[in-house]
Amino acid sequence: MSVQPTPKKSFSAMGLTSPVRRIMAMTAAMAIIATATSPAMAQENASSNTSVFQMFFWSSDILGLLIIYILLFMSVAVFALSAQYLLKYRRVAMIPEQTQTEIESMLAEKQYREAIDYANEDTSYLGKLLSSAMNEAANGHGAMERAIEETGDAETSRYLRPIELLNVLGNIAPMLGLFGTVYGMIVAFQQLVAAGGKPDPASLAAGISTALVTTFWGLIVAMPALAAYALIRNKIDALTSEGLLVAEELISPFKPSGKKSSSSSSSSSRPRATPNPDVES
Questions:
Q1: What is the average per-residue pLDDT within 161-190?
Q2: Which of 143, 177, 241, 265 has a CA-to-CA distance to 37 between 20 and 30 Å?
């Protein structure tokens, strides 16, 4: 009986664009190469002064080295994801001025069916709000407002879900750095015990170096990740709130008008009916 291979989740399924995938793949390849060549480089430079590479990217212990390069990979991923989300969640993409102008013009000319078709084809945040609202036009203005609110909540949750990855990276990175810190200190104390309280300073410093470098990279990942997460989240909140106001303003022609004064004729005193797209079109 043949065994079907387990399907793997691709980067595209996680919502990562092609440039981001290339950056992450290159970083992973660099980390693998550096991990494989670091022991040889350490032996060659044993008698020389400590280089910048050894100071920030190298550990004498293989586990410490692995932690460092995992954090390095996470750091590049944070910057790539932050750039992607900042470009994706912009006002011009979520609340396009062209959509606002076209829908407003069509409603002013009572081209309700054309306005509905235009909104249904628009994939922006504003387009989806207007699409859900105008498809409820036959049920009155109140139903349109409720449709806008429900769609707005659903779309806002959909926008916020991907950026949670930045929050996760920002919280995991310090924990991973702390793990390296504890591990490095354990190695240092083991060297102290093995040497009977008089260890070789170089051996003792190796464990302490691992502890400090992993802490350093944990902070390097966490600070930009949490800052970017807060910035992008606030930006999404602001744009979605603005989109709701714009959508509610655009559907204002569907509001029923109030009663006119008693001096008006009986034929004109009746309130205007809500525009019905099915009838007008």
A1: 89
A2: 177
